[in-house]
Amino acid sequence: MPEGLSGFYDASKADQLKDEFNPNVYFSVAGDDADFLISGDLARLDFRTQLKNLKMPVLILAGRFDRLCFPRFSFQFKKYASQAEFVMFEKAGHNPFIECPDQMFDVLRKFLSK
Predict the structure, then answer these.
(1) Cβ partners under 8 Å of residue 77, min gap 6
(2) Fold for domain 4-113?
(3) Range list of H helices, the chain
(4) Each residue of 76-89: pLDDT tens digit?
């Protein structure tokens, strides 16, 4: 499932994403019809209630315009892992490392230096 333009806030940056997609791995994890319905092993995976038990620092990164992992799901991670640091990139989709690399890597440097 190459994400095409749907993973971007600014589609003009899409050519910076390397297309290293292995459909065999993706469909074995997410199911044969994963573009429309998540099934397979991924559909049975729900670790949200255990996130509160994580003892290490946790950083949740999200793009406001992510159409692949919708922001509401990222908010759920923060709800279940209240100890986590949460950062929303307002002008990014699924790939903030491409759309706002300076901001994203600044966040990562600060988080990793703690």
Answers:
(1) 48, 51, 60, 84, 86
(2) Rossmann fold (3.40.50)
(3) 23-30, 40-43, 71-80, 96-99, 101-113
(4) 889 999 999 999 99
